[in-house]
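Ticket reopened. Same input as before:
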Amino acid sequence: MNDLFLKALRCENRSRAPIWLMRQAGRYMPQYRAIRAKHPFLDMVHDPELAAEVTMLPVKHLGVDAAILFSDILVIPEALRVGLHFDDGIGPIIDRPLQTAADIDALPKPDIKEALQYVAQAIRLLRPQLKVPLIGFCGAPFTVASYMIEGKSSKDLRTTKQWMMKDPKSFHTLLEKISRLTIDYLEMQIEAGVQAVQIFDSWANVLSHGQFREFSLTYFKMILEGIKSKNVPAILFCRGSSVFASQLAEIQPSAISVDWNADLMQMRKVIPRNIALQGNLDPDVLYAPYDLIKRETKALLKGMKGEPGYIFNLGHGLLPDIPYENVQALVDIVRQQ
Ligand code: CP3
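Engineering reply: fixed in the latest deploy. New output:
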């Protein structure tokens, strides 16, 4: 059993830094594209056997030190029956985005452990096959709420931020609803066998310091408290985590996953040593020639050398058009430390 990743999460790793990559099971992989050519994305998410097969791909072919469950943060809105589908070339679309406070009150109250039991089934299939730890995940309430309001990916979240400013009360009601469902969802994943969880706040970068504390940190905290008794390490990722790191540290997650803007070595000096750091190579480096990938990767590894709480990752997810062989090269460089 390779437990470098879990050791690093406990800040007890005395060996090389472990590596896994956000969005490691995705379209940049030819093996993923071959399966995806036969099935719509959401069908793959809903089918435990396919989800398990896709989760295994980067472990088998790249040799990463952790698996992350193949799924999506938007399964919670799907369970809230807002009409989720994915359009090739556009991304996620929600047919009935929230428009008024009454829409929030009218949301159904699904039994998440029932509605999303296909996720638990995938986890149960995976655990016996895996020789590396399995990471479960969810979206942070702010990011999930933003999709439910915008109805699709948006660059600046205008509608969401305007709602947040005009009617913070109903916005909080929505965030709280999502948080409660998310706690149930993570509990289910943990009971089924995930060994760590990561919470993705991909859109937190649009928030100011004060807004982040009020509309994001509050719910991160609620979720961490909600799953605390399960004793599973939790990693917090935001775009903007380098800006919000000191706030994130206040609520004592096991690890903070850092965007690529920050100097990780400097962050290590300000984040308490009992909190692990994950990150933070700019994913765009993977478009560069091999020598540059090697130089940047080695520089990051050198800076974090000897750190018992360091996990190599990117500052955000892998993009579909990143050359597969560059990702393989990256994993090899980290493993050969
Ligand atoms: O990391 C992994 O490999 C695990 C699986 C995973 C997916 N989505 C699979 C996926 C994870 C952890 C996510 C999280 C997710 N989903 C986030 C947060 C992380 C981040 O990158 O910021 C967000 C914002 C979403 C919502 C979402 N799902 C978007 C915006 C898209 C479209 C993006 C695109 O590249 O087209 C998805 C679809 C999606 N989720 C794909 C995958 C592999 C691509 C679907 C396809 O095959 O067409």
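The pocket of coproporphyrinogen III is lined by residues 22-27, 36, 41, 68, 70-74, 86, 91-92, 137, 153, 200, 202, 317, 320 (CB under 6 Å). Residues 158 and 174 are 17 Å apart (CA to CA). Please confirm and we'll close it.
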